């Protein structure tokens, strides 16, 4: 089986690449804006250029880990909506079926009832430009499914683990605690009200591997999370404990979107049934693997 991995040089794409490469039955062709493999910026090319990449690499499966997580709405629309439309249009030019595994986001759900796991059937009401752009990409995949395309969206909740970038809360938190350990000053963060479902990036990669290689029809959308809601304050306390420093002080500032969305917990029953997948990395292991053990020994 040949797999074309788009966004292979990104945070999640790097983990997916490592996982897929560990399967000797697969031939993985990485593609991205940097790194080894095919050079392609999904947000900057049209369906013609994408068709050329698909024709040259001749994949059985295309995994799309590419996307834009920040910046202005125009950039997010280009990377998360137009890019997906162009990819689907390019796949439609292939004479034989090619499975598409596309990474979505829990931000597509927006505000959900507190205290309850959210199923795939829950209404999607995003509150941020990012969530809106990701939902538009998911809707394009839904439309492709209605026209016979073999395509699945893995709706990723809050990824954590090695390499987590600073634009995500766990990455910011670890960087802040690292500075606190180095300087001896008390770490400071924004408001930590709310709950999130954190899933290790390596578990995300395992689910992508399963979605790419599982035979038969898959559901159109599958939640990809840990199935647990963690209080952000507890996450900070756990990370501080691993680092051997005091829990961070909180300020009144923070993301307006995060303040609106107070609860996230994935219902992962469907992905378990469809892919025989379940998360395997506990939260403390994810934090330690982000570099906190090195901090604590200083």
Question: What does this entry show, briefly?
Answer:
The chain has 298 residues and is an alpha/beta fold. It has two domains: 2-160 and 199-228 and 266-279, 3-Layer(aba) Sandwich (Rossmann fold), CATH 3.40.50.720; 169-194 and 229-263 and 285-296. The protein has helices at residues 11-21, 47-57, 73-92, 129-146, 169-183, 201-213, 232-243, 256-260, 269-275, 283-288, 292-296, and strands at 2-6, 27-32, 38-39, 61-64, 99-105, 151-156, 158-160, 188-189, 195-196, 198-200, 221-224, 230-231, 249-250.
Number of strands: 13
Indicate the structural class.
alpha/beta
For the record, what is the CATH homologous superfamily label of the largest domain?
A: NAD(P)-binding Rossmann-like Domain
CATH T-level topology of the largest domain: Rossmann fold
* Global geometry: globular
Mean pLDDT across residues: 93
Distance between the termini: 46 Å
Helix percentage range: 40-55%
Low-pLDDT runs of 5+ residues are 293-298
- Reading the helices and strands in chain order gives EHEEHEHEHEEHEEEHEEHEHHHH
Number of helices: 11
Strand order of the largest sheet: 3-2-1-4-5-6-11
CATH architecture of the largest domain: 3-Layer(aba) Sandwich
Radius of gyration, in angstroms, nearest whole number:
19 Å
Number of domains: 2
* CATH class label of the largest domain: Alpha Beta
Largest sheet: 7 strands, parallel
Strand content: 15-25%
């Amino acid at each position: 089986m040949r797999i074309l991995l788009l966004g292979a040089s990104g945070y999640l794409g790097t983990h997916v690449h490592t996982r897929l490469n560990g399967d000797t039955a697969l031939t993985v062709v990485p593609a991205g804006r940097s790194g080894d493999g095919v050079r392609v910026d999904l947000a900057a090319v049209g369906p013609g250029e994408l068709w050329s990449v698909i024709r040259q690499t001749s994949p059985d499966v295309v995994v799309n880990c590419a996307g834009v997580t920040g910046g202005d709405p125009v950039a997010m629309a280009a990377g998360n909506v137009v890019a997906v439309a162009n990819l689907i249009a390019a796949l439609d030019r292939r004479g034989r079926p090619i499975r598409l595994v596309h990474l979505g986001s829990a931000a597509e759900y927006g505000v959900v009832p507190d205290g309850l796991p959210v199923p795939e059937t829950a209404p999607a009401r995003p509150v941020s430009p990012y969530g809106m752009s990701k939902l538009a990409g998911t809707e394009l995949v839904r439309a492709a499914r209605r026209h016979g395309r073999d395509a699945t969206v893995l709706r990723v909740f809050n990824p954590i683990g090695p390499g987590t970038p600073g634009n995500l809360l766990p990455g910011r938190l670890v960087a802040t605690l690292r500075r606190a350990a180095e300087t001896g000053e008390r770490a400071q963060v924004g408001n930590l009200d709310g709950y999130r479902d954190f899933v290790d990036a390596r578990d995300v990669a395992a689910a992508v591997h399963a979605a790419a290689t599982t035979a038969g029809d898959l559901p159109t959308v599958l939640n990809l999370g840990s199935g647990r809601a963690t209080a952000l304050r507890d996450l900070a306390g756990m990370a501080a404990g691993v680092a051997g420093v005091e829990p961070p002080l909180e300020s009144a500032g923070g993301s307006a979107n995060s303040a609106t969305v107070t609860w996230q917990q994935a219902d992962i029953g469907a992905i378990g049934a469809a892919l025989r997948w379940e998360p395997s990395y506990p939260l403390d292991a994810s934090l330690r693997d982000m570099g906190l053990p090195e901090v604590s020994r200083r």
